[in-house]
Every structure is written in structure tokens, then in C-alpha cells.
Amino acid sequence: MRKTVLNLKVISNLQLNDDHHLLELQSPDQLETINPGQFANLLVDHSPSVFLRRPFSIYSVDYLNNTISVFIKEIGDGTRALGKTPVGSFINTMFPLGNSFTIPDEPQRILLIGGGSGVASLMSLAQILSKKSNEVSILIGARSAVDLVELGHFSKYGTVYTTTEDGTLGTKGYVTNHLIMGDQLAQFDRIYTCGPEPMMKAVALIAKEKAIICEVSLENSMACGFGVCLCCIAETIDGHKCVCTDGPVFNSTQLKWQI
Amino acid sequence: MRKTVLNLKVISNLQLNDDHHLLELQSPDQLETINPGQFANLLVDHSPSVFLRRPFSIYSVDYLNNTISVFIKEIGDGTRALGKTPVGSFINTMFPLGNSFTIPDEPQRILLIGGGSGVASLMSLAQILSKKSNEVSILIGARSAVDLVELGHFSKYGTVYTTTEDGTLGTKGYVTNHLIMGDQLAQFDRIYTCGPEPMMKAVALIAKEKAIICEVSLENSMACGFGVCLCCIAETIDGHKCVCTDGPVFNSTQLKWQI
Amino acid sequence: MADLSIKVHNLELKNPVMTASGTFGYGLEFDDFMDVNLLGGIVVKGTTIHPRQGNAYPRMAETALGMLNSVGLQNKGAHYFATDIYPKLTKYKTNILVNVSGSTIEEYIACAEIINELDLITGIELNISCPNVKEGGMAFGTSCPSIEAVVSAVRKVYHKTMMVKLSPNVTNIGELAKSAEFSGADSLSLINTLLGMAIDAETRKPILSTITGGLSGPAIKPIALRMVWEVSKAVSIPLVGIGGIMNATDAIEFFLAGASAIQVGTANYLDPSVTIKIIDGIDSYLNRHKFNSITDIIGGLHM
Amino acid sequence: MADLSIKVHNLELKNPVMTASGTFGYGLEFDDFMDVNLLGGIVVKGTTIHPRQGNAYPRMAETALGMLNSVGLQNKGAHYFATDIYPKLTKYKTNILVNVSGSTIEEYIACAEIINELDLITGIELNISCPNVKEGGMAFGTSCPSIEAVVSAVRKVYHKTMMVKLSPNVTNIGELAKSAEFSGADSLSLINTLLGMAIDAETRKPILSTITGGLSGPAIKPIALRMVWEVSKAVSIPLVGIGGIMNATDAIEFFLAGASAIQVGTANYLDPSVTIKIIDGIDSYLNRHKFNSITDIIGGLHM
Ligand SMILES: Cc1cc2nc3c(=O)[nH]c(=O)nc-3n(C[C@H](O)[C@H](O)[C@H](O)COP(=O)(O)OP(=O)(O)OC[C@H]3O[C@@H](n4cnc5c(N)ncnc54)[C@H](O)[C@@H]3O)c2cc1C
Ligand SMILES: Cc1cc2nc3c(=O)[nH]c(=O)nc-3n(C[C@H](O)[C@H](O)[C@H](O)COP(=O)(O)OP(=O)(O)OC[C@H]3O[C@@H](n4cnc5c(N)ncnc54)[C@H](O)[C@@H]3O)c2cc1C
Ligand SMILES: Cc1cc2nc3c(=O)[nH]c(=O)nc-3n(C[C@H](O)[C@H](O)[C@H](O)COP(=O)(O)O)c2cc1C
Ligand SMILES: Cc1cc2nc3c(=O)[nH]c(=O)nc-3n(C[C@H](O)[C@H](O)[C@H](O)COP(=O)(O)O)c2cc1C
Ligand code: FES
Ligand code: FES
Predict the structure, then answer these.
(1) Residue nearest atom 23 of ligand 4, based on CA coordinates
(2) Which residue of D has its CA nearest to B239?
(3) Residue ranges in C41-104 assigned as alpha helix (H)
(4) Which residues lie across from C52 on neighbouring strands?
């Protein structure tokens, strides 16, 4: 679907835990295809301290009801204000933005690795991959069990593995400490990852060692979200690329930090 | 009562007509004496376009319930935001500010003349004057009958006369067109007025001609409200005076525009 | 419908709303959102003779109703522009100006010479005010002799409209404006960004890789208005007002202060079709106040 | 509880939080709201040798997270200050500085001489940066020779701490800071307001009677931070940071950029006890980051 700016109606706002909200936003118009990995740029009203839009991965799309969902972790004034948006009000939304994860032509064995709010960009990916008969495994890392709020959804699309830093659920430690990241990794054709940069770097390094294709979804501070301000660059082997248009998804071998 | 800044709870928000609201704000602390003519300076939250506080006359005080009321006419972003404040939420309020109308030691015949949202500063004045056995008459001017929303309250404290520009209630025209402003005016010992500047100037001129004491309550654009920014000056015969501390009430003969 | 057309020297605009360099890409990025042809003109991204990578990441910091950027003129160079981008822009039926920058006078000249060959580029905006490059840029725009040197040098090789974009980071913008006028500028655009800085108190680091960057957005509007007004008294060539314009009311303020046209910058990021709303809003304002033409309010501030 | 005390040259502050001239009256207006003695110091209203009525009304315009003022140094003169106001201030146990201004060097000298006699006034802040007066004021603060003239003249007659307040409306604030240092300033405070303008589009009039005025508030913080950082590299005397400080985080940013103390201005209007919250917030920050003293973070920006 082409980029657009619309006032989307908040038709539900689920508080998942202390600081995570899932907002479902309804479009007045028929939605066209939105690809997994794409994001939306939300305007925060009524906040003197938030000037620019705030980018969020499109967590899921419901073409029947013409809704998209965004998964919001509160970390500052913008996300706190958005998390509080009452049902029935409107959020001015620019979407869909950015490129998307590669969907293989033939079914493959694919490992998705998410950390923190990075899991948001993997949900619709998991859904589409499983629909296209890929064999999907999902490894999710979090600080603690309470932060693992979306496991139920993921388990519909594949096998879910977890790690927590405090050991309250799954393997104790980081995602890279999980058994699956060891010898078992060779079974996968592709890895798709989104999460904190150190995590993605570590995953990309392991993927490279094992020669597995790895796509990462980057975050960045964005002023526009559609390629005009040139603020959101990633350093790639082909020079500076915009995360909002050339990305957010990059093949990890394209990125300088990988080398 | 000394000046203070408190979060006051909105315990009622009456929409009086299209663009007028009466907000009742409750203090957590016992209120001390607030004098008629004093004002409050309200902070407008959640509005990127409103930076400074907004001043409003204290319309009435309820010492039993520790509430003050403010009468708000929506004219810009600040008043519109305040008018929408939901019951139960809090408004950060600096009050009571400014001087007050003179309350005569002995009962007198007093005419209050209000125009537009200026009537707000006359309500608690009418109440106190009538309580102290003064003979109170109240002349209120408005554009149209729909804007005359507070007549019922005033009639508890004195005889109410009205003018409307469109003639929908009372005498057609401005307050200065009312019969009472003619020969009958001599019966009054004092005139207290608050409203648009042209109205107050006209009233003050007539009062001067008839040698009746006249106090006017001025508006002004204010940055602080408590005498430190020196932005809110009125030109008086003694030089620049601050409307927020030396006023808002001035004897009209003090003001340069009177001469 | 009031007459919104305006001539800025020999640049004919169907309406006074243009877009500011660095905030509108090459226009193409806006095709999804709006009809670019409705604009008076667009000024494309800052262009230099050699390709530039721009500065390292991070390049952006949000501030109180504003933002800092330190992009540093990232662009693929004038040749690439001429061969790869320009052909895509020929579909537009509006004025396209190229924002020309350089580290040396020779670079400015070389870049302007290339742009001079492009038929459908109606003018250049000479950027002597970029705060985000180590050499040249703003340095040219902060003293009279250097303004005279670069403006008159480019004037010799560039034959269409030359708008000179002034830096606000100066003591006396009126004097500098006069230098630009004297050296052959056809019009002046102002302001570029104000030099600012942002710090992350938690990490105790500057937010921008370059430490300082250029401030734009509503925060700077009062300064921009003052400068347009000051310059309008100093020179007689037309002015294009820039700085924190978010809506038609802001635009009107710039016309009243003396600008013949305006450029919208940061506001495009928040609402990519804001310029269309501004054009409509200017028209409504003129109708409401019973003016027939935009020219009726330019410099029309009552004292 | 971290050690918040700091010496700004020979000015001993119990904590680095002061109030900015023109935004804190004479302190007395704040007695209802807070304990003024908890502050590191206060700078009272701009004072001139002769009484000044200031500019005509209107003097204030609200802007995007900021405000313009054109008060124009309304005050009753140095003699009145000495005889009528000063006695009321002797109750305070904190540093009181007088902000000294003038239209000529002689006026600066005369005013400073009077203030020099007042025992409990620990210093002056030499205001060479007021944008709201027709003569003198900012004109003194925008060129090196005039800074040198006024600062060295006042230095001869004033024997306690002399803080010089710099104007931001300049091309190169580092150079001007050096002039002030060289001419005898003990410390520098910055920034004063930025020259701006506001227009009412409906009435088509400037909002301020003086057309232009001084911009303050959060909008200017990025510019103020940048200037403090730039000046901290140019001089070795201590700096006092001013500009848009609304909370402790803002204050910390100024310390990191190189300020030894800060002044809170416009924020006092919104919350008259904001300075107390800022002091507490600085203390919490230092504790949370395990610093023992405010001196640990001054100029502590990691690159
Ligand atoms: C393409 C993309 C997709 C995203 N998807 C999601 C998502 O699905 N769910 C979600 O919760 N968040 C997502 N984010 C991150 C989200 O945009 C930020 O959390 C949000 O912008 C923060 O706004 P704020 O006003 O709450 O915080 P701010 O007040 O802006 O920032 C608070 C603190 O967080 C830091 N910070 C802000 N943004 C980022 C960032 N992008 N990376 C690292 N640090 C940052 C700031 O420097 C500051 O220290 C995504 C970001 C991008 C670029
Ligand atoms: C002492 C005092 C008491 C007041 N009492 C009341 C009251 O009881 N009820 C009430 O409704 N209002 C009262 N006002 C006026 C009220 O403060 C303003 O209407 C309010 O500040 C406007 O805020 P805004 O953000 O809605 O409008 P803004 O967006 O600030 O202004 C909208 C338009 O109105 C003009 N404007 C703003 N304030 C004033 C003013 N004070 N005088 C003239 N024009 C102005 C502006 O220039 C602008 O054109 C009082 C003002 C003062 C100084
Ligand atoms: C991200 C960004 C990039 C910019 N790049 C350029 C540029 O390349 N050349 C230029 O002359 N101005 C550039 N500018 C300045 C704008 O054109 C404009 O002068 C400034 O942003 C003020 O206007 P605004 O407040 O409406 O944004 C840039 C501004 C921003 C925010
Ligand atoms: C209404 C007003 C009056 C001011 N008067 C003075 C003054 O008399 N002398 C002076 O040096 N600065 C004066 N200033 C400038 C402030 O001291 C301060 O430098 C400026 O407001 C920036 O700080 P802020 O953004 O925290 O307000 C005044 C500022 C305001 C808003
Ligand atoms: S956010 Fe503007 S180019 Fe990517
Ligand atoms: S509003 Fe500040 S002195 Fe009156």
C-alpha cells in the first residue's frame, strides 16, 4: 500500500503489563497490503515535550476490520502519552513505512529472534511465514518473565523458546546463551532478528560464522520516517543508508558493524 | 490568604453555553479569605501551544467546601483546553492574586457594571456587598441573550439590569445606552466595572462627569501574575503600575486613559 | 479565490509557498502524500560538487518545539543530481530550485555551473549558511567580505535566479544581507538553522555526533520573523521567509514582516501535506480580510 | 546528600542554583511561595543609575515554548534601590547580586559605584546584553571594543565579584567572552534573551509596543547550551548557564556543558518554587550517578 497519513481510531488499548500497551487502530479506508517489518509513524498530541512523530513497528494487520496494531513500550514522554490514549480517540498515523523482511519463495526453516520491544516487528512476520508453510521457530529474550507478554500469540505460528536475564522463564541469560544458538543453529536457513543493538550484533556475528542468512531490523532516531530528512542513517558497506526507507530491515552483511 | 500554588481538583465543570464554562475547583487545604476582585492563574497542561499560565477572576468562593469557581470564556487554545478539563482531574492554580475592590465601611448604593467575561470578577463582589447591606444594582451588557448566562446568580444579590447589542434581552445597545446611566446614575455612591476596555473607559468617563467613585478591573497580558516580570503594566498618573499586584482593580482616576 | 501568484525577482510563483531545502527531499518522496505541482516551488536537498556522506550518526535531537540536525549536506554530488535525479523531476510543473553548497568558492562555482545547464531548474538557492559542515558552509555567511566573494563569484557563472540563503548566527543580519544584495543576489531566503546543542544528561554525552547542530521548528519562529523584518528594512530585493512555519497564520506573519514568499521546513516531517493546507489557509485569510492579492499584505505590518 | 556547594570565582554558593535577573523581582515576591534562603543566590532586577519607566504596553508575547518581553529595564534607579529596597533584602542569607545596566559607560560606572557601597550585595552582574533598550544595553555586548570599554571601566570602581552577562545575538560569542575575561570579568553569565518578534496576523500589528523583544524559555535552551559550551572552551573564568532551564535535567546539561552554576529565569513564572525542585533534583542526580560533589560534573561532557 502507498504511504498515507490518516487519523486512525483507537478501538482497543490493552495494557499488557506495567509499561507495555497494545493499541489497535482502525482505518476509515480499506487497507492494502502491509508487509512484515514495515512501521508506522504516530503523532503524539497534547504533549509540549513531544514534537516529532514516534515510529512503531506494525505488530499485526487485520484486513477484515481494517486495523493495524502497535505494541508500545513506555520509555519516555511520547510512548507514555500514546500508551494512555483512550479508546475512541484518534491517532494521526503515517503508514506503512520502510521496507520489509524477505519472504522466501519456497518454504524454509526460519528462526526469529526478538528482544524487548523488538518482538513487535516479528509478529506479523511469524504469521505470514507460517501461513506460507515455513517452519518457524521463535526465540524471545527479555529481562524477566513479566516482560514476555506476547508469547501466546507467537505460539500460534511456531515453536517458541525463551530466555530471561533473571531466569524467571526459559534459559537464564541472553538469547545468545540459548542452546538453539549453538550447534542446532545449522538447521536454519534464515535468521530474522529485531531488538537491542548489542543483541542484534551478537546474533548477526553468530549467523555470519555459521553462514546463515540474517536480516536485522534496526531502530534509529527519526525526524520524518519517509526518507527526506536524512537523519536516520545506518552505516552500510555502500555508505550511509536511511533506516526509514532503505531499512528498517537490512541483511546483516550489508551493515558496517557486522564486519 | 497568602499566595500559593496548589493542584486544585475539578469537582464540577458546567458548560453554560457554546463557549462559557464554570469550573469549580477544590483545594486540599482550608481556604482563607479571598477578596472580591482577586484572580487565579491557571496552568494549562498538555497543550504545546500554551506556555504561560492563564489568569481568571475568582468568580466565587465556598469556604465550607474549600472551592473556588472560575468562569471561562473560550477565546483561544488555553481557555479551550481549560474548558474541556474533565471533572476529577487537577488544575495547578496560583491564587489568590492581585488587589481587590474596595468594600465601603458603611452600606452604600453601588452599581456594578459588567461586560462579557468581565462579569466574573463582579459575582463575589456582589455577594459580599449585599451581605454587608449595601444596596446593589447590577448592569450587565452582552452581545446577545445567550451570553447572559449568570443572571440568576446575580439576582440573589441585587437588582439586575441588562443590555444586549442585538436587543434579545433588556435594553438594546451597550451598557452606556441603559437608562440607569443617565440621570438615575446620581443615586449611586460608587460604580465598579469590569469588561472590555472601551466599555470601561466609557463608564469611567460618565462616572467622572457625575463625580461618582469608579473602580475598574483591568485585564492585561501576564507572564507571572505576582509582580516579578513587569510585563503587565497599566499607565497610571503615578507611572507604570503592575496590573497583577497594584491591580487588577484601579480607581479610574488613577489611570491615564481616564484623563 | 484571491490571487496568490507572486514574482520573487524573476522567479514566477503560482503561490508564495515553497519548501525548504533538506526537508522535502527531491519532491518525489511526497508524491504519495500530495500533488507537488500545487506548490509555488520546491528547493531540493543541499547539493555539492562532490558527493558527501554527511556526518556520522546520531544526526538528530528533538528539542522544545524544535529539532537539531547535523546531517551535513549528505548528497551524491551535482553530477549525479544532473544525470540521475534531474530527469525524474522534469515531470513537475512547478519551480525547482537547487540548494547549492560548497567548502570553497571553486566548489560553489563548479556546482552552480552544472546546475546552470539544467533547463527546468529555475534557480539556485546559494547556501552560505549550513552550520553542519566543517569547512565552508556557514563560515561564508557570517562575514561581509566572504559573502561578497562567494556571491559575486557564483553570480558570474549562474544566469538564472540566484537566491542567497542567510545564516541567523550573526550579530547584524541586515549588514550581511546588504553584502549579498550588493554582490548580485536576486533575492534572499532566511533563516537557515540556528546553531544549537543537545546533551543527554543520563549518558553525559552530546546527542549529536557533531556535538552541535542546526535548530529548526516553531522554537525559532520569533527569531526568524525578527530577522526577516530587519532585513526587509536593509535591502530592496525580495525576501523568502523561513523558520518554524507550521500553518497559514505563521506564513501570514512572515508576509507582514516583509517576505514575498515563504519556505516550509520541519513542518513537512510532521505533516507531509502541510504545504497544501498552508496555501488554502492563506487564500482563506486573504478572502476573510478582503484582500485581492497576496501582494496586498507583503510588508503590510501596521506600526 | 551530595556536596552542592560551589565557588564561582570568589562567589561562594551553597548550591549552584541562582535566579535570573528580571524573573525573580527582588526575591521578596517569592517569600509566599518558598524559602529564598535555600538558593545559591539571586540576581535582582536590572538596575540603572536613573529611574526608568521601561517601554510602553504591550510588553509580552507568548511564543512556542517561550516568550518575548520588552520590559526595557523598568526600575526606580540605583539610589532608590539602595535606600528603599536594599534594607528589606538584608534579611536574606544568600548571595544577592544586582544586575547593573546603563545607556553610557558613565551610567554603568555610577550605578556600580552605588552598589559597591552595599555590604550585603555580594556582586554585580554587568548586563551588557539587554535587547530592550534603545541606547546601550545590548549594543555594548556585541563588539569586542565596546565590551572592553565598559567592563574595564566598571572593574575600576567595583571591587567585589563582577559577573558579566553576555548577549547571544552575536556571530562569535567565544571572542566576546574573551574580551570580557581580558577586561576583568570574574565570571560570565549567559545567555540573555535572543532578539525576536511576534506579529498578530489578525490585527496585522506587532504584538510588542517595541516591535522586537527578548526571547526566553525552553525554546532557546539548545542555543544557550551551545553557547555555554563554546565559551567554556574560549575562557578560563567560571560560567553561569542561563536559558530555558525548567528542571534539574536541564540544569545538569548546563553543568556538563561547562557551567559552574545556573540561573533559572522564565520557569519562575510558571512555578515560583521551581528552583527548590531543581536543587533537589540535582542532588538526586548526583546521588543516583554516585558523584560526591557538583564539581564532579562541571564540564564533564564525554565526547
Ligand atoms: C523503525 C522503528 C520501529 C520501532 N518499533 C517499536 C515498537 O514496535 N514498539 C516500541 O515500543 N518501540 C518501537 N520503536 C522505538 C520507539 O520509536 C521509541 O521507543 C519511541 O520513539 C520513544 O519515544 P518517547 O517519546 O517515549 O521517548 P523519548 O523521550 O524520545 O526517549 C526516551 C529515551 O529513550 C531513548 N530513545 C528514544 N528512541 C530511541 C530509539 N529508537 N532507540 C534507542 N533509544 C531511544 C532516548 O534517547 C531517550 O534517552 C521503534 C523505533 C523505530 C525506529
Ligand atoms: C486579571 C484577569 C482576570 C481575567 N478574568 C477572566 C475571567 O474571569 N474569565 C475569562 O474568561 N477570562 C478572564 N480573563 C482573560 C483570560 O485570561 C484570557 O481570555 C485568556 O488568558 C486567554 O487565553 P487563551 O489561551 O484562550 O487565548 P490566547 O490564545 O492567549 O489569545 C487569543 C486571543 O485573545 C487575545 N487575548 C488574550 N488574552 C487577552 C486579554 N487578557 N485581553 C485581551 N485580549 C486577550 C490574544 O491577543 C489573542 O488574539 C482575565 C484576564 C486577566 C488579566
Ligand atoms: C534535517 C534538515 C536538513 C536541512 N538541510 C538543509 C540543506 O541541505 N540546505 C539548506 O540550505 N538548509 C537545510 N536545512 C534548513 C532548512 O531548509 C530551513 O532553513 C530550516 O530548517 C528552518 O526552517 P524550519 O524551521 O521551517 O524547518 C535543513 C533543515 C533540516 C531540519
Ligand atoms: C520579563 C523578563 C525580564 C528580564 N529582565 C532582565 C534584566 O533586567 N536584566 C537581565 O540581565 N536579564 C533580564 N532578563 C533575561 C533573563 O535574566 C534571562 O537571561 C533570560 O530570560 C533567559 O533565561 P530563561 O530562558 O530561563 O528565562 C529578563 C527576562 C525576562 C523574561
Ligand atoms: S527519518 Fe528522515 S530520512 Fe529517515
Ligand atoms: S504579570 Fe508579571 S508583573 Fe504582572
Answers:
(1) D243
(2) D53
(3) 78-80, 86-89
(4) C75
Handedness of CA D12, D18, D21, D27 (dihedral sign): negative
**Closest to D101 (Cα-Cα) out of D156, D56, D43, D29:** D43
Q: End-to-end CA distance of chain C, in Å?
A: 28
Instruction: Please choose, from the candidates B246, B228, B118, B232, the residue with its C-alpha nearest in 3D space to the C-alpha of residue D61.
Output: B232
d(CA B23, CA B67): 10
Q: Report yes or no: D231 and D242 within 8 Å, Cβ to Cβ.
A: no
**With contact defined as beta carbons under 8 Å apart, do C181 and C173 qualify?**
no
- CA of C207 relative to ligand 1 center, distance in Å: 14
As given in the structure block, the three cell numbers for residue D222 are 539548545
Q: Are B242 and B233 in contact (CB under 8 A)?
A: yes
Residues in chain D within 8 Å Cβ distance of B242: none
Phi and psi angles of residue C209, each rounded to the nearest 5 degrees, phi first: -60, -30
Instruction: Map out the domains of chain B as residue ranges.
Output: 4-97, 109-254
- Cα D301 to its chain centre, rounded Å, is 23
Strand partners, C15: none
B 21-40 residues inside an 8 A Cβ radius of A: none
CATH hierarchy code of domain D6-296 = 3.20.20.70
Which residue type is seen at B74?
A: E
**In one letter, which amino acid is B106?**
E
- Interhelix angle D221-234/D173-182, rounded to 10 degrees, is 50
Name every residue whose Cβ is closer than 8 Å to that of residue B76 and which is 6 or more positions away in sequence. none
Cell numbers at A8, concatenated: 486512525
**Residue whose cell numbers read 518554587:** D273
A22 lines ligand 1 (CB under 6 A): no
Question: What is this structure's pTM?
Answer: 0.96
- The domain B4-97 is classified under which CATH number: 1.20.1560.10, 2.40.30.10, 2.60.40.1180, 1.10.760.10? 2.40.30.10
Q: Which residues face A4 on adjacent strands? A: A95
Q: Tens of pLDDT along chain D (303 residues)?
A: 899 999 999 999 999 999 999 999 999 999 999 999 999 999 999 999 999 999 999 999 999 999 999 999 999 999 999 999 999 999 999 999 999 999 899 999 999 999 999 999 999 999 998 776 666 666 788 888 889 999 999 999 999 999 999 999 999 999 999 999 999 999 999 999 999 999 999 999 999 999 999 999 999 999 999 999 999 999 999 999 999 999 999 999 999 999 999 999 999 999 999 999 999 999 999 999 999 999 999 999 998
Q: Locate cell 511520547: which residue?
A: A78
Backbone dihedral region for residue A195 (phi beyond 0: left; psi -120 to 50: alpha; all else: beta): left
| Residues of D belonging to the active site | 130
Give me the phi and psi of B222, to 5 degrees please: -120, 135
C-alpha span between C106 and C102 (Å, rounded): 8
Say yes or no: do domains A4-97 and A109-254 share a fold. Answer: no
Three-class DSSP category at C23:
coil
* CA dihedral over A223, A227, A228, A229, signed as positive or negative: positive
Q: Which CATH class is domain A109-254?
A: alpha beta
- Contact: D62, B227; criterion CB under 8 Å: no
A–B: how many Cβ contacts below 8 A?
A: 10
